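User: Please predict structures.

Assistant: First:
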Amino acid sequence: MGRANKVVLAYSGGVDTSVCIPYLREEWGVNEVITLAADLGQGDELGPIQEKAVKCGAAESLVADAKETFIKDYAFPAIQANALYENRYPLSTALARPLIAKLLVEAAEKYGADAVAHGCTGKGNDQVRFDVSIMALNPKLKVLAPAREWGMSREETIAYGERFGIQFPVKKSSPYSIDRNLLGRSIEAGPLEDPMTEPPEEIYAMTKAIADTPNEPEYLEIGFEKGIPISLNGKPLDPVSLISQLNEIAGNHGVGRIDMLENRVVGIKSREIYEVPALLVLIDAHRDLESLTLTGDVTQYKRTIEETYSHLIYKGLWYSPLKEALDAFIQKTQERVSGMVRVKFFKGNATIVGRRSENSLYATDLATYGEDDGFDHKAAEGFIYIWGLPTKVWSEKMRS
């Protein structure tokens, strides 16, 4: 088909992206396929992935260690925005897509490729996130999605790959589709497609079952600087270490599981299971610290911004003008969101039990009911009269 001469392919080492290599060359006339695997903390052995790509026919196989960038430039801004899609999902998988798209575009520019490609199907969210992000970063690049067009079943895809000498290891087939990175795991398909089916314990890898969690609570102090988590129990940590350690602590207490029906970008509902221990705890703690350090009107207005922000990330609009404008608002609100939040972990719960900040707007002398009360109670009467005056006038008119 001659759609492109040189292509950079987002590569995971799975069936679809492996088959994409010969398919692009044989069916679409691509001369050279360069694969790019992004290390986002998924725990895969990336050495064998490079070797496999070359065996599948790739001219070159690249691996990008993007773990720190992933947390600093994508996860932390989402935490500052308390980003929860449909008020539940903290976007652990969605946040990886604009970063992978950026890596693809950069590699295409470096190697002189005229197209980038991915292995997404036409049913999911990731195709939208990749395509739109690539369009935003380099509108001249072609975006190829072979799996969206080839119309092959799983068995046919494997058979096609075998024709070109690709070996797919025989293993016990899992009915689940799993995506993992440093922020968490998403699990879907198989028996989970029935919304009434309880998720079996075997699908979880980052969080313990409640029965297996410690019988004593554990307390943890999370330090924030301008809305960004910087320490655990007073110990400063780099972004990757902080997320990793918090995943371990929260997961050990069974914290971080989500089971939800989600509205996908393409208009269908999907049953999704997520394990996101650190991310959920950090958003909860960060929101609590904001309640101590931001004025009421800013906090309330920011909630509406957060919902929009979450939808932009979910729907592939990370590199959009609106997202950029909202970033400016959010960054301004974070200037005084520094301090510490104390969290109690116990039997599947992460409960916030304390918070403090040098920028605290909580005034003890105004809040107390004790003898140190400095609030002017007499001022309340006049305030209530003025505050309630429109309602009083309305009521009088209605009754007359």
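Second:
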Amino acid sequence: MTSVRDEQPVRPTLQDDVAAAAGEVIGGPAGRRARYGTGWWTPVRIIALLAIGMFALGMVQKLPCYDGGWFHGAGTQYTHACYSDIPHLYNARGFAADLIPYFDRLPGDMEYLEYPVLTGVFMEVASWLTPHDGTIQHREQIYWLVNAGMLMICAAVIAVSVARTHRRRPWDALLVALAPAFALTATINWDLLAVALTATAMLMWSRGRPLPAGVLIGLATAAKLYPVLLLGPLFLLCLRAGRMRAYGGVLGGAVVAWLVVNAPVMALAPEGWKKFYTFSQERPVDFGSFWLIISQRTGDPLEGANSWATALTLLSFAGIAVLTLRAPRRPRFAQLAFLVVAVFILFNKVYSPQYVLWLVPLAALARPRWRDFLIWQACEAVYFLGIWMYLAYTSSGDAHRGLPAEGYQLIILVHLLGTLYLGAVVVRDILFPERDPVRRDGSDDPSGGLLDGAPDAFVLRRPAPYAEQPPSFGGQRLQWGVEASGTAQRG
């Protein structure tokens, strides 16, 4: 039976002060008789079009580089903040010469393509769609355009997936569609492929489909390493809810999908296949990380940063695990997904500007509040400008045009503190679930799929009394949890 709560989407202008203030521009908040989902202009379609529009504005922002900045020396692409890896790697990674990724050895020190297999396939397909006549500069421009078109599809998929993940909160996806850092960084690299697959995996999980969710996580991990981290929160949540069979479906689907993509290349071109992993391991401390601040301030290259980063990351993951199993209510999947990916990025040896793309859809689902989201986005936008100004300074020789190292270090701190701030707010919502904007209407975990409304089966504290157990929503059968003694309680 469908309740009123399931029929109408949540209206942000009635729950969010920033959204309400912005809504005054278009006539104020929606009234109680407003209807959604009728006619062509549904929330999902509006959000998809806005996401495409913002992506297009991001492409326009790259226009100075497209008109020559990528090719007329390093300075222009930095001073205009329009740098992209895509045109540079078209020739540098052998796509212009029709070399086969992972199989054909590249000239120079790189030896093989340093991207995961599915991203390499994406890059190769774009090269097939790029005409092979004309000057190399013209071909690089077209290659960027082809990739931008393919990445625009990914951006639309991300926005639609986020809009549909929380059934009653489609407008939360406006955070994704209108995110400034999302538009600015979307065409720097190929990260949107993995982000789109991850967002779709979370949509499948929210609809109670563990196997498709696992397959998509496996494919996303074949495009970028970070999506595999989502398997950790899912394990903890399924453990707490006693739904390990569902977790088995996710894990099995992920492993099989990853192997289907990777196994042929592993078998036929092992040296090329492992380049991504060896490159990640051997890569020195780089842009955007707090390790770079320490290295620049001390003059120490921090060759042991890998070990320290791994140790700090694992320690933080252990803290998240304890939080998950001791929280007064089982955390929402999106909250834990945001936290584990944020921890991974914060302690990484490099925090590239496009890594914000990994977090934007997770942030929109984990903490759908415009004030906190915009504070974080402001920090990311400042960093986006800061890194290019720093590179302009280092590439300008004696002229020293741009931002010196000390200024860049301050920008990195702003960048990191913005992510830490949003992470802290998410942790607060977990510890005090009454402050969680998603749960204020009585919802449990709209992105939790089979876990939504499920009782606790395992916790690291005394189980809540029967009357305090969270109710089951969405038509799911109500089943109460299993205490540590193994005694089942059913309502």
